[in-house]
Structures are given as C-alpha cells and as structure tokens.
What we know:
It is a single chain. The protein is α/β, with parallel strands linked by helices. It has 9 helices and 20 strands. The strands form 4 sheets. Strands 16-15-14-17-18-20-19 form a 7-stranded mixed beta sheet, sandwiched between helices. Helix 8 links the parallel strand 17 and strand 18 (about 345-355). Helix 2 crosses helix 3 (about 135-150), helix 7 (about 295-305) runs parallel beside helix 8 and helix 8 packs across helix 9. S-adenosyl-L-homocysteine binds near residues 209, 246, 251, 296 and 317. S-adenosyl-L-homocysteine (SAH) binds near residues 212, 245, 248, 266 and 267.
Amino acid sequence: MSDGIVVIRKGREKPVVQQHPWIFSGAIDSVRGDPTPGDIVTVTDHKGAFLARGYWNPKSQIQVRILTWQDEPINEDWWRRMLKRAIDARYPGERQHKEFAYPNAQRLINAENDFIPGLIVDRYDNWLVLQALTLHIDQQKLSIAQLLAEIVEPKGIYERSDVDVRNKEGLKQTSGLLWGEEPPQKITFVENGRSMLVDVRHGHKTGFYLDQRDNRDFLLHEMAINSGVYRNPPKTELPRMLNLFSYTGGFGIQLVFQAQITNVDASLEVLEMAEENFKLNSAIPNQVDFIQADVFDYLHDQVAEGAQYDVIVCDPPKFAHNAGQVERAARGYKDLNLNCFKLVKPGGYLMTFSCSGAIDADLFQKIVFGALVDSGRQAQIVKHLTQAEDHPVALTFPEGAYLKGLLLRVY
Ligand code: SAH
C-alpha cells in the first residue's frame, strides 16, 4: 500500500460517504505523500478523517475510483474475497462454477457494479475474457488473472482491453492471452437452450452481448404464448420476425423454429457469424434471411413496400456517448421506432432498446411515445426491459443502468 492521501474539499464529501465510487478532480483539495499513478490511496475529509480507499490516476478526470469504504488493506486477500463474492453470486449453490453448469456464458465481474471499478470479466464455456479499463486494473491484471484461475479453474483467460475508454486513463489498447491456453477461434456456448458461437478475439465487447440474455428468453416466452405456433389448431403460416441490428443473430436464434426471421446488420462479418449460428441450431435455410444494410434505409424501404411483421426487435448500438449527443440520438431513436411501428402487424410486438447511458428509461419511453403518436398506432407496454441479472447495478451507482427497453404490443 502506498502512503498517498487524497484530501476531499470541504463540503464535497457527500458522494464519497454515500458510496459513489468515483471522485472527480474538482472534488479534490490536495494529494499528499507523492503517490505514483495507479497506486492505492487513502481518501480523507479536510480534517484528515478516513473516508475510503481506492486507486488514483491523475491523468483521468475520475482521479480516484473507490475500492472500499472500510479502513482495510487492498491486498491479495481483499482481491480474492471480492472476486469470489461476485462470482459466487452468479452461482447460487455449492461451488457450481467448477462444474460449469449451464448457462455457461455470463458476466462474472461487472466493474463498479460489483464494487471492483474498471474490471470486467465474462465467461464463455471454459474461457474467461477480461477487460482492464483503468490504469490500476491494468497494472494488476496478471495477479487478477491468477486469482480468477484459482477460483474458476478455466482453460484460459484472454484479454480484450481494446476499448476507447482506456485512452482517458492514458492507456493503449491491447489484447491477447493472459493466462492458460489460447482459446479456439470460435467458442461454442449455450444460451437459453440455443448453441452460440463467439469469437472472443474479434467480437464486439468481450465477443457477445450477454446483457440481452434475459430479454431474448422473454421474447421466446412471449412469442410461444402469443405467436400462435402452439395454438390448437396451430397457425399454418410462421410468424415473421425482423431482427434489426442483429449482430451474430442472438435474438433471432431464440425464435429459430417459431418464426420466419430476417436479420439486418451493416456488417457482413457479423452476418456470416449469424449464419453459422443459425446453422448450428439446425435452422431451416428458407426460414432465415441475412441482409446487409443500413437499418435506417432498410426500414424506410420496407415501409414504402408496405411490409408487415409479427415481431420486430430493434437493438441499435449506443447513439449517445455523452449528454451533448442526447438530442441527436433522440432523433435517431424516434426515426427507428416510428418506422418500426409502421411495420408491426396489428396485435404484433415491438421489442425496442437503447443502450445509451445518457438517455434514461423515462426519456427513452418518451421518445418511443413520440414515435407512436406520429405513427397513429396504439401500443401497450407488456414489459419494461433491462440488462440481464448477471449485469447487476450497484444502487449507489445509477450510471450502471445503461440498457433499457420496452416490449410493446402494437395495435
Ligand atoms: N442485437 C444484437 C446486438 C446489437 S449490437 C444481439 O442481441 O447480439 C449493434 C449492431 O448494430 C452491430 O452488429 C453493428 O454492426 C450494427 N449496426 C450499427 N449501426 C448500424 C446501422 N446503421 N445499420 C445496420 N446495422 C448497424
């Protein structure tokens, strides 16, 4: 432990006391004891009373990220305890993680939301993928990998720290093997009973959008009840699904036997992977389409052609990266949702999302409401949607709730 002390300005202690994990430079009165960037520092109030302990990086606007609010050392024991606590919470019951019970892909460490700022760890079958988002975590990553190896006993741990946010910490992007065996080019895992391939070296984020697992499951559940495929007598025609921003097919694969599915994405590479994923799940080839297109243009054309779908999933990438981009992003979301409303059959479903942290659930609902009004349709909220259970949100860290969505029945 270094002797660095970060003194909080008088009157600026409240967020620290209330366990928000970030301390911005503006709240800092002084830094004493000459710490080195990345070091553990003790945080005190202006009178010198202990408030918290965390790690320090003067290059970042978030100068301190807090690891504990107790006067305890941040050592190997702390790390083992915190990693184990987060991992055990994903596996209720006795040491199930050793047996890799299904589902066998999930987030194990969700950074600030698991009280370990800057660290993300996802598991895909026997492999872990780690993202080190901050300087201290980058410095510690080999010992973190060692502890993860002890706790989870994976075959290998691969690093995917090729993310822009590292620039803000003065770090370069990097990726590669951290521990154990090299993962295969594609790892197969099971999600909600479907097999999926993931390329942990090149895929988005750590390879797959694990945060949508529960929403994909809910879509299947809702469709199984309402699509008519299980009705007696069954509907003869399969319902039509439009999977917008499909990536490697996640939402579509949930409905592989329940619907005629059109996957749309701008990237040919991810569509090729989606095709492989559909094959892996024995999809009937003429029941699935893969269309490389800009979704905005595609929707425009579909509306012009008078196309109609029983279910549409709209899961775009992040449109607003900060508060300044909210207005433009809102226009984007409204445009997408307006066209989606126009394309849903009466009695059909729209599952619509935003993963922009800068747009909260209320604002998103207002934007979708605006689109509905313009479309002249009627809609009900069947369910408010959020990120999967293995992406919990620390109550002290509202920034952790980035994914919001609505499942709407449209008339
Ligand atoms: N729904 C997916 C995740 C979507 S990620 C899942 O469940 O796994 C967002 C996807 O949108 C990426 O695959 C990206 O290639 C694609 N994309 C981004 N902008 C696009 C655009 N304008 N038109 C079509 N696809 C786009």
